[in-house]
Request: fold
Amino acid sequence: MTAEFMENTPLELPHSPRHGELFDLLVEGLTLDGMGVASVSTLVGPQKQPLNYKFHIRKGLPGDRVRVQVETRNKRVFLAHITEYLEPSKMRIEPRCRHFGRREIEGQGCGGCTFQSLSYRHQLMNKERLIKQQMIDHKVDPGLVYPMIGQEDPWYYRNKMEFSFGTTGEREFALGLYPKGYRYQVLNLKECFLESEFTSNFLPKIKDWAMEMGLKPYREGDQSGFLRNLSIREGKRTGERMIELMTTHRPQAECGDKMVDATEIAQRFKAFILSEAPDDFTSIYWTQQYVERGERTRFIEHHLHGSPVLLEKMHLPGDQILSFEIHPRAFFQPNTRQAEVLYAEVLKHTGLLEGGAGAEEEEGAEKKRILDLYCGTGTIGLCMAPFAEHVVGIELQPNAVDNARQNAHKNGIDNITFFAGDVGAVLKEDAFIEAAGDIDLVVVDPPRSGLLKEAREQLKAINPPRIIYVSCNPKTLARDLADLSASGYTIDRIQPVDMFPHTYHVENVALLTRHEQA
Ligand SMILES: C[S@@+](CC[C@H](N)C(=O)[O-])C[C@H]1O[C@@H](n2cnc3c(N)ncnc32)[C@H](O)[C@@H]1O
Reply:
């Protein structure tokens, strides 16, 4: 039996585990947010009271035998970190990036990719296990979970990265990412394998420019400093690139020993980008952030150079190539190549394309009327519209809806209508009911919280023959699938797609069909 399938041996303890105490444990699995888990049955105190404890172990991988130190306790769950590897897991590999590792070591502990020490094959295997466990916990058959579709080349996959200006633990100027769980220190990135070699090499140049200018990172504590974030977006299918410098809203900022107008600093930023990388950016922005306690953050964008939007394309089944104009604030799936795979999976299950699941039994069927709920900038609905009679999208963010309408126009798609508002509320509106007509298929892609009660009830009232549920959270997916299967739906399959290699995040596409009524 391999170590990862063995269990911890029961322990006799004089008292329940306390802060700072050391334990030798076997990591048996992972939590949904990527921490190692060890479950231990214990006999505690002179009465030998039987108690089961769980340890959540930072950076622990299934199969690791480790010495851990307890940090904190929440009921019977203890958070602990590894002090010694007694026998590392067979799944462990050397991480590619120098910033992986323990945050106590300078230059390590990046919160970007927590699974880099797991081989990619084992990442997929463990994510699949996590999904199956959620299904078991919610009494959904885990046999419905198909093998995860991994990414062909799981490096340099992101089309957007947002970096923070700040200071390191040694109070040095830094531009990079926060270590996991930290908001007040920034890890200075010298390399990053998530977006591109270009971004990885360009980031230190921006940091040097800011330091030479004598600019200061914004500090939450005394609200001093000017620089907040730097975002770089790349069109993976178009080669376009957008850079956005985000600062406070102050009209002037400290530049060394002088105060300089913010607009002047923005012009110098543009001049620097154009001299350092004259052909690499198709769009340059400076954005001021207004952050007030208790209020939604406001962004004032100043377009400095090139195109006001980033153009990205998606290659989809049915020989479709769709174009998307992405404004700095617009949401777009962060992994273009895997989003194509995810959307192809959705399309396959719609039965709209020849050879898709359900296509055979519906040969010669009328074109379908479809709902795209939580539609964001309309990408899923736009992929389906060319094969459907009509699509209606609903999305909470009015900006995203504006973008969705522009995207429809840009792609010459006129059989799609978008409504701005809360899904639960819009589904009851007369204007929506009239536009939607009889619905054949509903696609939902909610945020991590899943379908809220009202949306679930409205969905059941519509009672569509088929539902496709796209989810970024297996826990709420399992909850909602259990609820829908108790309300007349059969779960046909759950297809995991790895959208975020080297992180614990997982995406699933579930297909549900309404039972035939007797
Ligand atoms: C996971 S994203 C899906 C985006 C889109 N389907 C895509 O693939 O690009 C979830 C979307 O739901 C929207 N949203 C969140 N709560 C909502 C609600 N109550 N009603 C409507 N939309 C909501 C968010 O603004 C976000 O755009």
In short: Residues 120-137 form the longest helix (18 residues). Residues 331, 333, 374-377, 379-380, 394-397, 400, 422-423, 445-447, 472 surround S-adenosylmethionine (CB under 6 Å).
